[in-house]
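Supplementary notes for students who missed Thursday's class. We covered one full example, reproduced here. Read the sequence, then the structure, then the short commentary at the end.
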Amino acid sequence: MNGNAYASLSASYDALMRDGNYPARAAFLAARLRESPIPVRTVLDLGCGTGTIAWLMSHRGFRVIAADGSEEMLTEAVRKGEGVSGDVPPPLFICQSMPRLKLAAPVDGVVSTLDALNYLTSARDLRETFRRVCRYLRPGGRFLFDLNTPHKFRLMDRRTYLDETDESFCVWRTFFSEKKQVCVWQVDLFRLRPDGAWERSCEEHRERAWSLEQIRTFLQEAGFSHVQITGDLSKSPPKENETRWNVLAEKERS
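Structure (token representation):
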């Protein structure tokens, strides 16, 4: 993810993302990884954010490396280890942007969730990310990720969304450019300070709408095969009005 985009939002992100359906998402990923042609022990969580999926995958017995470009989000991810049983191996959190991914050793599987890859708004960055994932994935390993769909971005154009907790109030204004295929979120975040006053911060987020054809082409160029695109948390083909795609790609076996 874009590190600067979450400088202020990181501390409130989990409270504002209560609809992330994390347990079901982690269970779906774990099941699909265990169907891989190769045994899956080590997993990379790419664009891990505050680390919820990374920790859930660790609880499911995987050794997890979790990468994100935001130091603030990774700080929140590490804090989630406080109080976790010593029987659960903590993820290894590393601060890296997706197109500059570097690992010391290959992994058996790679996951990326909640539209992290939509944050790559240039074809060059998405292609390079796919190439690097393929480079560090063992032959026969699976790459599982999800994307917000063009249909979802069109639905969100010129809309305002409100999220509220006891300690934060967030206003999201969204604008989608059909020409650039980019959705812009203008975020106003108000957080309650210890002295009772409210502190305001502003951020801008950008996500790119990618087509099914682009995703298939870029994955195949990077060295993946058996590309399968389904509805969210499903093994069935996506519906016409799908708002989130799940993508499965396997690295060619040598």
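Commentary. The mean pLDDT is 92. The chain has two domains: 3-148+210-251, 152-208. If anything here is unclear, bring it to office hours.
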